[in-house]
Amino acid sequence: MKKYLSKDEILKAMRRQLYVFLILILMVFWGFLYSSNRVNELQHDVTTMKHELDYAKGRIEKLEKK
Strand, helix or coil at 12? Predict the structure, then answer.
């Protein structure tokens, strides 16, 4: 036999699906923000290391000249 759902049951089910969908959207958004922030931090670290290496290279060349 077919079971007919009432309007309230349908609305409850739709509401639950909407909440799950919103939670998933928030998780994806948070993951994107976390990933992009981490990439920016890594780029900053790489730039800092390059500057430190350039400085050390310049110091070594200066010391070799003496």
Answer: helix
Model pLDDT, residue 1: 62
What tokens does 34 get? 């976390």
Check residue 66 and give its pLDDT: 79
Which pair of tokens denotes residue 26? 């928030």
Average pLDDT over residues 21-40: 98
* Pair of tokens at residue 22: 């919103």
Helices within 1-66 (DSSP H only): 7-65
**CA R_g for the chain:** 29
At 4, phi and psi to the nearest 5?
A: -90, 135
> Nearest to residue 51, comparing CAs of 40, 43, 63, 41?
43
